[in-house]
Design goal:
Number of domains of chain A: 2
Largest sheet of chain A: 6 strands, mixed
Radius of gyration of chain A: 18 Å
CATH class of the largest domain in chain A: Alpha Beta
Number of strands of chain A: 6
Structural class of chain A: alpha/beta
Shape of chain A: globular
Number of helices of chain A: 13
Oligomer: homodimer
Strand content of chain A: 5-15%
Distance between the termini of chain A: 24 Å
């Protein structure tokens, strides 16, 4: 997906959020904001929004010397989701269609995205989970995904955010942990999942975890490691979670299933759904 | 008032709104957005937000060749407010405290600000008017204003927006049209009042109308004409409407009364009130 004009005010807001989260010197904040404005003024709008996100968060980390400003937030979000996990797992396994419920809950978990919103409250996560169980979800896409997942011998599951990764476990269990590889970002960026989150969430005990080799808040293939690109190319099925992965892989050569909550108007328009929708997209609609 | 970091994403949103309002070529829009990003990256944050607004809207007018992109919107807003005027005037004159009601309605009219929001619906204006009659308004400030207005032999009333100017007539009537001079912007910018709006609203038939000599969406004194600055210096009482005038005159050497609806979080924080408040500020609180 290209970068739309509406992404530009949002880049600035996102940079401000990150700078405030780190507190500190107003002069440093001003310096970073000016650098972000300059970079945005010169950016290639043909590239995806996470390409700019990568630039912004590098500028912030360099200027502030903090390699992971969202570390505490990520730890809190993982703990919060782990508290919800046992109850949610019961809902999945007791349902007549556990895969469909796991898809809904994993999509609901995508509400935990600090790139879109500055903060997220426990009640908002609980609300998104409750809503997801009855929200519209493309039944055709669920069936296409079910068939593709049954047939696939190896599945690459590209994660998105801390906290959300705990809910991804519900879906990984339904897919069969033995055939899933879970991909995280190569370095901290916003509250995106890293190896540390795969460990804190329990995901690392279930499946093989690989990292993208990139610090972009998405999957910019040309910026990923050779090792990651090989795994991506070799996967029988790729499931990519969240907005950043959609933005960076929606034009990929390989068919990808996307599972996300459409939280911003730009993404919703690109997908063609109302803001707030649960989205499962992928597979050919013959 | 200085420019806060939070104003920066808002500048970009405002530029996008104006560009979209004019429709037209995406390449021109992109060119202007890049120029706005560059200007914002180099701006002096010690200056007020309307100083940047002035730069942005000049860039837009130059790139698009449209000297007044908001002309139709302003005409519509004036007509809409003129339809409401007779009923509102009755409310004022039938009240036991007509000045207080006129202050409330003139402040409610300040909701008609296309710098803060891209569009405004008739229902929103009616809602703001309805709410204003019972909303909290600083009673001490009303009494200070009443005394100052009674004593003043000449009053400079600095207008803000088209549409809103019709509701300003209610307050001008209470102040005594004979001693009021009404100031408009020197050239079109957003939906700010110009001489054309003073004529369309009926204000020009009631009082002397002068213009600031500046195309800033506020009153940047050093950018105003000598004639305007003389009138400003010579006024026994200055009443400035709206956010743009507050932002540019809140640090002026001369005491000014401000009347506005605090529509954005930055202004609300600067004033120290909740977003959405009716604000009358000025006069010394002995």
């Amino acid at each position: 997906m290209r970068t739309y004009f509406d992404c530009i005010p949002c880049f600035l807001r996102q940079a401000l959020d990150a700078l405030r989260r780190m507190g500190g010197d107003e002069a440093v904040q001003e310096k970073v904001l000016r650098a972000v404005l300059k970079a945005a003024g010169e950016m290639d709008l043909g590239r995806s929004p996470p390409a700019m996100g990568q630039v912004i968060h590098r500028l912030i980390r360099e200027a502030t010397g903090d390699a992971d400003p969202y570390r505490e937030a990520k730890e809190r979000l993982n703990r919060l989701a782990l508290d919800l996990y046992p109850g949610l797992r019961r809902r999945v396994v007791e349902d007549s269609d556990p895969l469909a419920v796991a898809l809904r809950l994993a999509a609901a978990g995508n509400v935990i995205d600090l790139g879109v919103k500055s903060g997220i409250a426990e009640a908002e996560i609980a609300g998104a989970i409750g809503d997801s169980l009855s929200a519209p979800l493309d039944g055709g896409a669920v069936e296409r995904f079910r068939r593709a997942a049954d047939l696939a011998e190896n599945i690459l599951y590209i994660g998105d955010n801390a906290g959300e990764i705990v809910l991804d476990r519900l879906l990984v269990e339904q897919l069969g942990a033995g055939k899933v590889t879970f991909a995280v970002r190569g370095a901290p960026v916003i509250n995106d999942v890293t190896v540390a989150d795969a460990e804190a969430s329990g995901m690392a005990e279930m499946v093989e975890v690989i990292d993208s080799g990139s610090d972009a808040p998405g999957t910019i293939l040309e910026d990923c490691s050779d090792a990651f690109r090989e795994r991506f190319a070799g996967a029988a099925l790729v499931l990519a979670k969240g907005q950043g992965n959609y933005e960076t892989l929606s034009d990929a050569d390989k068919p990808v299933f996307f599972l996300l909550k459409a939280k911003c108007p730009v993404i919703a328009r690109d997908i063609g759904c109302p803001v707030g929708s649960l989205v499962l997209q992928g597979g050919s609609e013959e």
